[in-house]
Amino acid sequence: xxxxxxxxxxxxxxxxxxxxxxxxxxxxxxxxxxxxxxxxxxxxxxxxxxxxxxxxxxxxxxxxxxxxxxxxxxxxxxxxxxxxxxxxxxxxxxxxxxxxxxxxxxxxxxxxxxxxxxxxxxxxxxxxxxxxxxxxxxxxxxxxxxxxxxxxxxxxxxxxxxxxxxxxxxxxxxxxxxxxxxxxxxxxxxxxxxxxxxxxxxxxxxxxxxxxxxxxxxxxxxxxxxxxxxxxxxxxxxxxxxxxxxxxxx
Length: 250
Prior knowledge:
- Helix content is about 80%, strand content about 0%.
- The protein contains eleven helices and no strands.
- It has helices at about 1-15, 15-50, 55-80, 85-90, 95-100, 105-130, 140-165, 170-190, 200-205, 210-215, 220-250.
- Helix 1 packs across helix 6, helix 2 runs parallel beside helix 6 and helix 3 packs antiparallel against helix 6.
- The chain is elongated, with a radius of gyration of 20 Å.
């Protein structure tokens, strides 16, 4: 049943003009930035030859592209997740879904996997840009794959948070603003990690940025991966609990 709900959610996204518009804008914007980065690398290539341990095309093109892509993703996710439950609560169609012979876990995971599949398709299209450079240059495959993995894990964590916040309100716009605010706060909280003591360590650990930057450096740390997985599981667990409360009230 999870796959049925996920397929239905993914199909509804591809049938929505909003999703296609967002996908086109994201790809167009990042493609333009990618071409600018490639042009900058081409101009610097002559000077890089004389340097020892000079940065390669992965460092000068792929990594900056992923740094911009994460900001685009943080803006994209709230717009995709805002209608997952809030729209159904507003139109009262959620009652029909809750009365169906499916568990709350299946409903939440189905909707989550549907929107996550759309986001992973977006990440794959972004990754094709730097991967195309392999035709004429040498890429640091390990660093590139680490960046793709980091972007995918960030998409999974952000969509889980957006799904939960979508359950809390009947207004999609409110869900989108709340999700965007939460993600930006967790991204910028890294600035508070300079505080001494346990507070600084806590701010540093909950920061989305700190764990993502490690992947961009080509560092695969199980602690960073565990952070994103636990983040996603926590919000999915909260979403299941909240949906179960709504079912009991009705």
